[in-house]
Design goal:
The chain contains 4 helices and 4 strands. It is of the alpha+beta class and 105 residues long. The protein has a domain at 19-83: Alpha-Beta Plaits. Strand 2 (44-45) and strand 3 form a beta hairpin.
């Protein structure tokens, strides 16, 4: 963005730009693989054995995701959700996927 202001909005409006949340599920028993039924949710396993599911809150509810996990027979020990913060918004706004050189003067 070459130093240009790309957004000047209230905090909640900026945060709403990123419609992505993360559900972190700690199963009672350590998982070695992701059940096939959860692969369609793009679930991942982290190094600690937690099940990580990134989702758009406008497309799926956390209740639906928990139900899908439970339907596989996984017993949940603990869970938490993560929402984007202002740092995530900053990175999204300032990371240009298709960089263009600045206009020569």
């Amino acid at each position: 963005n070459h130093g240009e202001v790309v957004a000047c909005e209230p905090k909640q409006t900026l945060l709403a730009r990123l419609d992505q949340k993360t559900l972190v599920i700690h199963p009672q028993k350590t998982l070695k693989t992701i059940p096939s039924a959860l692969r369609q949710l793009n679930a991942e396993l982290d190094k600690d054995g937690a099940l990580i599911i990134r989702y758009r809150s406008t497309e799926q509810s956390v209740g639906f995701l928990i139900e899908q996990v439970r339907n596989t027979g996984i017993r949940i020990s603990d869970l938490k959700t993560r929402e984007p913060d202002l740092e995530d918004v900053f990175l999204e706004l300032t990371t240009n996927k298709n960089p263009t050189p600045p206009n020569p003067k």
